Amino acid sequence: IFPLKYQLLYQWENRGTPKSVNLGPFESTKVELKGLMPGRAYRFQVCAKEMLDLGHCSDWSSPVHITISKIKP
User: Can you give the pTM of this predicted structure?
Assistant: First the structure.
């Protein structure tokens, strides 16, 4: 079994330049992203790559659209 790392691509409502975060290797599939704005919808995609950067990233996942909850005062 080869350890994997992941690349997370996210973008605010398909506007502006997508941002990318490299993760891994992880047994967990969780990450905390800072700077996301409450009430905004974001699109997320992920791909996997061999930890040593051998080869190419997998196909990107289907996009997932998530709206960040507003914080109640």
Answer: 0.76
